[in-house]
Amino acid sequence: MAKSGSVEIRTSCDHLAYLSSDLAHIPTPDTPCSRCQHPNENWLCLSCKDVLCSRYVNKHMLQHFQQSNHCLSLGYRCLGHVLFTFGNSDLSVWCNSCNAYLDAQVIMQLRPVYETACILKFGEAPPFHIV
Ligand SMILES: [Zn+2]
Ligand SMILES: [Zn+2]
Ligand SMILES: [Zn+2]
User: Fold this and answer.
1) CA 55 to centroid of ligand 1, rounded, Å
2) Boundaries of each UBP-type domain copy (predicted)?
3) Nearest ligand to residue 33 Cα
C-alpha cells in the first residue's frame, strides 16, 4: 500500500492546457489498459483519452507521461487513498508534472470530465452543486 502522508491535493495546475478538447466522450471505467490489458482500476489520459494502468501495475500511464508529456490523468480508482469522499466516489485526478492530486471540485476545467466519469462509474453526477 502507498503511504498517503505526503500526498498533496492542489487547487491549481499549470498544465490544464493539455486537457483534451473533447472530454464529453470518455472510455468507461472498466476499459482495460491499452498496452497490457490489465482489466480495471486504470487511469485515463486526459490529453488523448488513452486508458493505461497505474504505477502499481505495469506503470503504463507513467511511461506514457514520460514519452508524450501528457501529465493529466483521471484514476477510476486510486489504490490506497481515500481523497475524494463525495458519497461513494473514489475517482481522482492526478498531474504527473505537479506530482500531485488535483481538486476537481475547485478546478473548473476539470469539473465536466469529472462529472462525466462519475456518471459512467456511479450512474450519477457527483454531489457538488455549489456555485
Ligand atoms: Zn500540473
Ligand atoms: Zn498496462
Ligand atoms: Zn495521452
Assistant:
1) 18
2) 11-124
3) 2
**Ligand 1: centre distance to CA 18 (Å):** 9
Instruction: Determine the 3-state secondary structure of 105 from DSSP.
Output: coil
Indicate the domain borders of the chain. Answer: 9-122
Cα of 14 from ligand 1 centre, angstroms? 5
For 42-65, b/e burial (b = at least 16 CB within 10 A) is bbbbbbebbbbbbeebeebbbebb
Class of domain 9-122: alpha beta
pTM of the model: 0.83
Question: 26-39 pLDDT, tens per residue?
Answer: 998 889 999 999 99
Neighbours of ion ligand 1 (CB under 5 A): 13, 15, 95, 97-98
pLDDT tens for each residue of 97-129: 999 989 888 899 999 998 898 888 878 777 665
Bridge partners, 65 (sequence order) = none
